[in-house]
Amino acid sequence: MSTSMNFSTKSFRPRPPDKGAFPLDHLGECKAFKEVFMKCLRDNSFDNSKCRLQSKDYLECRMDHQLMAREPLDKLGFKELMDRPPSQAEKESKP
């Protein structure tokens, strides 16, 4: 029984993953949102449940600038934050 591997018959074409990786923000288009989110995490001992609004804003910025695929916010776990009028504290947290 002879096995022969011929690698030239098929070409492997890599493609980016569907989820879990996205381009870096080289132009800093969402840097202000990232900084607000990171400050919130630091101020809250990295308890991300206290920074949901900042996380949502950051991801919306990334989607708006094609730095990640557009996804419905409820699918990203932000259903409770959708269609909610911003409070004064939330307005102040925006960059």
From TrEMBL:
<keyword id="KW-0963">Cytoplasm</keyword>
<protein>
    <recommendedName>
        <fullName>Cytochrome c oxidase assembly protein COX19</fullName>
    </recommendedName>
</protein>
<feature type="compositionally biased region" description="Polar residues">
    <location>
        <begin position="1"/>
        <end position="11"/>
    </location>
</feature>
<feature type="domain" description="CHCH">
    <location>
        <begin position="30"/>
        <end position="63"/>
    </location>
</feature>
<dbReference type="GO" id="GO:0033617">
    <property type="term" value="P:mitochondrial respiratory chain complex IV assembly"/>
</dbReference>
<dbReference type="InterPro" id="IPR009069">
    <property type="entry name" value="Cys_alpha_HP_mot_SF"/>
</dbReference>
<dbReference type="GO" id="GO:0005758">
    <property type="term" value="C:mitochondrial intermembrane space"/>
</dbReference>
<dbReference type="InterPro" id="IPR051383">
    <property type="entry name" value="COX19"/>
</dbReference>
<feature type="region of interest" description="Disordered">
    <location>
        <begin position="1"/>
        <end position="20"/>
    </location>
</feature>
<dbReference type="InterPro" id="IPR010625">
    <property type="entry name" value="CHCH"/>
</dbReference>
<keyword id="KW-1015">Disulfide bond</keyword>
<feature type="region of interest" description="Disordered">
    <location>
        <begin position="76"/>
        <end position="95"/>
    </location>
</feature>
<comment type="similarity">
    <text>Belongs to the COX19 family.</text>
</comment>
<dbReference type="Pfam" id="PF06747">
    <property type="entry name" value="CHCH"/>
</dbReference>
